[in-house]
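Data deposition worksheet. Section B asks for the primary sequence of the deposited chain exactly as it was used as input, without tags or linkers unless they were present during the calculation. Section C holds the resulting structure in token form. Section D is free text for depositor observations; keep each observation to a single sentence. Incomplete worksheets are returned to the depositor.
Section A, Depositor: J.P.
Section B:
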Amino acid sequence: MRRWMLVLVFALMGIRGAAAQAEALVVEAVTVVPETDAYGQPALYAEGLLVNQGEMAYTGLSLLAEVYDASGTLIGEGLGYPVNACLAGLLPDFALQPGAAQGFAAALELYEDDAEAIDRVDIIPQGTAVEPRPADDTPLPGIVPVTPREVVSVEWADAATLRYGAGCWRDLFTEWDWYEYNLELDGETPITHPKAEFVARQAMRQQVGLTDPVLLNRSVMSFDPNGRRMVYQNELHTFITAEPDGSFKRVLYEGLANRTLQGVYWLPQPGRFLAYYYGAFGDPVLYFTADVNGQTLGEPPEETQPSLIVPGASPDGTRLVLAVEQNERAGYYLKRAAYKELDLLFNVTPPGNNWPSPLWRATPDSDEPDYLYVALPVDGEARLNCFNLETRALRDLARLPLRLADDERARWWLSPDGGQIALAANGVHGGLWLVELDSLGTC
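Section C:
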């Protein structure tokens, strides 16, 4: 689970869930943890899972918290709500469906400033029963559900094995819950990310100047899944590559303090990546491609053509796919990373910057042309489309299981053999799915 200031964790010895409606709402896995509130101040929160064990859905959810010491004396109280993995409260009309579970967080206020006195916290859920939403169990062709967790990152080990991280997208990868999933066995195992050991070393954090946990969490530090080196930004938002121990640093770009680094996307060619910047949903996206040895592959981010979407990139990072509006018409364009010229691929209303970026499927060992996979909104649905870069034909392939609010995001990753896409999303309707491309036909 997400932890901004993990100084202590209390495993609660007594947890009681008393639901106001037929005892259908219960709480599980409750812990008390220190977090940072909206004003940047330390605060205690009770966090856990709210589970609906009844036959009705519940909306207008809130949770009363009562804090007791070992003698049974009430020493504090709190109020909580359902939240996503980033501890952001869900909309008031959120309805917890039968059999579903949702994370919650309750800010605790102690009568005296003595957190060590906490013996137990009782959580009392409250809500209004409403008719449940009809279950949509119809399977989508070519789509295999893997998990309903809020998945924010996927790394393919080979064509049959991947690992994924679930948690808050704003947190460092070491704060996510990681799992290894085997496609052939259709099974997963909790794991520790193989590069987490480097981040745990104090010497490395000193070497890169990120000993402050807050700055470390904002660094967007990311390791090449198929190599040694890492990338990160420092407190001045200077973008740097380095060895796993923090040595042999190479500065790629400076002067980006007025930009928000939203993510680093590793490309199929080892050591190459795309970094992308934007402020919020609807903002234009700036970006650059480079490699871990400090070689830039195109224009600096402040000189790039802003994109309406997070760009896609060729496996080597030398070509980009953007969404741009020109002459009052929006479209997807092909661009060489080091040049200004744009080549129109097709006109379409693009989705927001929280949708998956165009995914480039290269076929270097065959006579087939390269393809682009694009996720597009069509009549209220998310649709998978394939674009043939040789014939310039756009073909609709399948419906995608995406239901994204403006503050949620989805990303995807192509398997090494090009046969599968791992599609991940966070938020209330988050999860991880496998898109079996071979079952959907060719472009």
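Section D:
The first strand starts at residue 10 and ends at 11.
The helical segments are 196-199, 202-208, 213-217.
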